[in-house]
Automatic annotation (TrEMBL):
Source taxon at top rank: Bacteria
Keyword Glycoprotein: no
Organismal lineage: Bacteria, Bacillati, Actinomycetota, Actinomycetes, Kitasatosporales
Record flagged with keyword Lyase: yes
Keywords: Lyase
The protein's name in its UniProt record: Dihydrodipicolinate synthase family protein
Pfam families the record matches: DHDPS
Sequence similarity: Belongs to the DapA family.
Amino acid sequence: MVHAHVPAHPAPRAHPWHGIMVATALPFREDGSVDHDAYARHVARLIADGCDGVVPNGSLGEYQTLTDGERARVVRTAVEAAGDGARVMPGVSAYGSAEARRWAEQAAEAGAGSVLLLPPNAYRADERSVRAHYAEVAEAGLPVVAYNNPFDTKVDLTPALLSRLYADGSIVAVKEFSGDVRRAYELAELAPGLDLLVGADDVLLELALAGAVGWIAGFPNALPRACATLYRAAVAGDLAVALPLYRSLHPLFRWDSKIEFVQAIKLSMDLAGHTGGATRQPRLPLTPEQEAVVRAATEKVLAEGHA
């Protein structure tokens, strides 16, 4: 397997889930198989271009369509390509808690530094089930980042519930995808030690100003350097840099919260000169109308020098 060169990095961070953790898109060959070599180059490039780490096997990585063998190899490829396993946060979501724990154990064996976990989502789980689920996966030994996506899971990890999961010792952070930026302040009151990570690109600035310490990000797949500049300025409160750049990128960032976010981000990657490509079914290509909108927005930010 051929990998891109990964430059040397400073000493490992105490909290490897902080910073820009890119939810990586996964390239496929023309025959539909996973292109692990292209994926390795993608991971190395993201880190070289200023991102702090990667999140393989998330929704953007189309993990639901992967075989067990493909999913496990994606994690190993990411760890090797990143040059430091602590920079890798695999998604370990599964319908059953025991299966999710096995994926967390696989991540630990591969050398990953943390894992990302949805609540139970085969049904609308109650609080007891949610707490038991996270406690089970935490037994694998890696820090667990909760993923709150009430739209897709129909389970809302409210600030009150997150505070209980944190008090249980089951989670260290939350990827917040509800879109309700007001929750940042309630969460800080109820669980001041729980780290808030931006979970949707189109609320990056709002949550960064509200105290987020990380961003599990989509569009850095296509525009890593511009997104890194934006993130650093946002968490530093440098609105003179952050606000105009955020305004420029926001027409693209909105796609991260749409159903077609995988296809949109992969198209932007292609336009930016990186390997995006096709998605696996049931995701279908963008409609001509959707493609035209994403293409125009991407070409505009590239023309403005935001690569």
